[in-house]
Amino acid sequence: MLIYLCHIQTINFIKMDFTDKNVVITGGSTGIGFATAKAFVRAGANVWITSRSAGNLEKASARIDSPKLKTVVSDTSALSGIAVLEKAVAESGNKVDVLFLNAGIATFKPIAQMTEADFDAQFNTNVKGLFFTLQQLMPHLADGASVVLTSSTVATAATLNSSVYSATKGAVNKIAQVAANELAERKIRVNMVSPGPTQTEGLDGVVSAEAKDYLAASTALQRLGRADEIANTVLFLASDHASFITGAELLVDGGAINYMLK
Ligand SMILES: NC(=O)c1ccc[n+]([C@@H]2O[C@H](COP(=O)([O-])OP(=O)(O)OC[C@H]3O[C@@H](n4cnc5c(N)ncnc54)[C@H](OP(=O)(O)O)[C@@H]3O)[C@@H](O)[C@H]2O)c1
C-alpha cells in the first residue's frame, strides 16, 4: 500500500512533456477538448482541434494563442466531415502521436420522449463519428501512439433520462477495448477517460442550474469536475507514464455514483 501511495505521489509531480508530438483532438473548441488542447500546447505539442464551427474554432484559437495550435472544421457525425480531417492530417505529412476522440453531444429526456432525431444525432456523433475517425486516422498513427476516447460514468450507470447517451458511451467503451486489442501489435495504446459531471459549456447547455447543484452534491467531493482535471488525466493516459495501461477506463468523477438528472 505504501508503495502504491508513493507511486500516486510521484505522478502528482511528473511533468508531462510532449515536445513536438503531434496531437489530434476532436471537439476541441470548448469544454474538455479545449482544456486538453491547452494542456498539450503547454506541454510542447503541435495540436489540431476540430469542431463543426469555424467561429468556435477561431475563438478557441484566440484563447490559446499559440502557433502550435491548428484548427480544422470537421463535422464528425458525417463521413464527409471526417474525410476533411483525414485529408488535413495526410497533407501535413506528420504521423499522429496522440489521438483524443472527444467530440460528443448529449440529450437528456425520458425514453418516452426521445425522438428519432435525438437518437440519430447522439449515435452519429458519439459512436459512428468516433468509430470512423479512429478508422480513417489509424493509418496516420505513429507506431507506439496513444488513443484516448472520451466516455462517461453513465456508460456503466443507469442514470435516469440518459438512455441514448448512456448507450452511446457503452458503445464507446466496447470500441475502445477492441481497438486496444487490435492496435496492440503496433504498440498503440487505447484508453477511455470517463468524466463524471464536469463544468463545461456542453453541460451548461443540457442541464439546469438546479440539476448541476444536484450533480455536484452527488459526488463524494461535493463539486463538479473541472475541464482541466479531465485534461490532466488525458495527458497522463497519453504519456509514457501510462506505458503499461491499455484498454482501461479511468473514471474522473469525484466519487460520483448513481446520480440522476431531474
Ligand atoms: N461535461 C460533462 O459533464 C461530461 C461528462 C462525461 C462525459 N462528457 C463527454 O465529454 C466530451 C466533451 O464534452 P464537453 O462537456 O466538453 O462538451 P462541450 O463543451 O459541448 O464540447 C463538445 C465539443 O465537441 C464538439 N462537437 C460536438 N459535436 C460535434 C460534431 N458533430 N463534430 C465535431 N465536433 C463536435 C463541440 O464543438 P462545436 O459545438 O463547436 O461543433 C465541442 O468542441 C463529450 O464526449 C461528452 O459526452 C462530458
From TrEMBL:
The keyword Oxidoreductase applies. The lineage of its organism: Bacteria, Pseudomonadati, Bacteroidota, Flavobacteriia, Flavobacteriales. Residues 21-187 form the Ketoreductase domain. It comes from the Bacteria. Keywords: Oxidoreductase. It comes from Sinomicrobium oceani. One of its GO terms (molecular function) is oxidoreductase activity. This is NAD(P)-dependent dehydrogenase, short-chain alcohol dehydrogenase family. Belongs to the short-chain dehydrogenases/reductases (SDR) family.
